[in-house]
Design brief:
One of its GO terms (molecular function) is acyltransferase activity, transferring groups other than amino-acyl groups. This protein has a domain of about 120 residues: Gcn5-related N-acetyltransferase (GNAT) (Aminopeptidase, 3-Layer(aba) Sandwich). The chain has about 180 residues and is of the alpha+beta class. The longest helix has 16 residues. The protein contains 5 helices and 7 strands; from the N terminus they run E-H-H-H-E-E-E-H-E-H-E-E.
Length: about 180
């Protein structure tokens, strides 16, 4: 199993499928999750079908890669993990993760998915670094990223507007030091 970068003991990461339309529709239209992105309006199923139709494009063309996090034992979709804002000149991308159900959080699925995507980004895509933007009060995400070696390198004050007030956001960074 050492050679498989997208499969772990608890989860595996897979490409989006056309059958994921309802799942993506539910996530993208969940207003509680909009604070995690720059989304301000709902997405139509038509638009998301087009997105899924083009999700086969590689990261160099699309500048992003979204994968579904699935349980290794029964293939149940648990969440999504994204590489976004890919900058090929500087070999870096942003990284975001979401485990859908609050019941499934804290069970190690997110940690393993994060390990897998880091390994994939550094080993297969040959990235130099990954970064994450995390709201200051999001203690579970801070703990998750810090456990994987991400370092807090900055604070963006009043960066994200949530519910009429502004919140601080941390910038986390992981630099690949095992360069050949």
């Amino acid at each position: 199993m050492e050679g498989l970068t997208l499969k772990g003991d608890l989860v595996y990461l897979r490409a989006l499928e056309p059958e994921d339309l309802d799942l993506v529709f539910e996530i993208e239209n969940d207003e509680d999750l909009w604070e995690l992105s720059t989304t301000l309006t709902p997405f139509s199923k038509f638009l998301l079908k087009q997105y899924l139709k083009n999700s086969h494009k590689d990261i160099y063309e699309a500048k992003q890669l979204r994968l579904v996090i699935c349980k290794a034992d029964n293939q149940e979709a648990l969440g999504m993990i994204d590489l976004f804002d890919f900058d090929p000149r500087n070999n870096r991308a942003g990284l975001g993760i979401l485990i859908f159900s609050k019941v499934e959080r804290g069970k190690g699925y997110g940690a393993e998915a994060l390990k897998l995507i880091i390994k994939y980004a550094f080993k297969r895509l040959e990235f130099h670094q990954l970064y994450a933007n995390i709201l200051e009060e999001n203690a579970p995400s801070i703990k998750l990223f810090e456990k994987q070696g991400f370092e807090r390198v900055g604070l963006k004050k009043d960066w994200t507007r949530v519910g009429g007030s502004y919140r601080n956001e941390y910038l986390y960074q992981l630099i690949h030091t095992d360069v050949h």
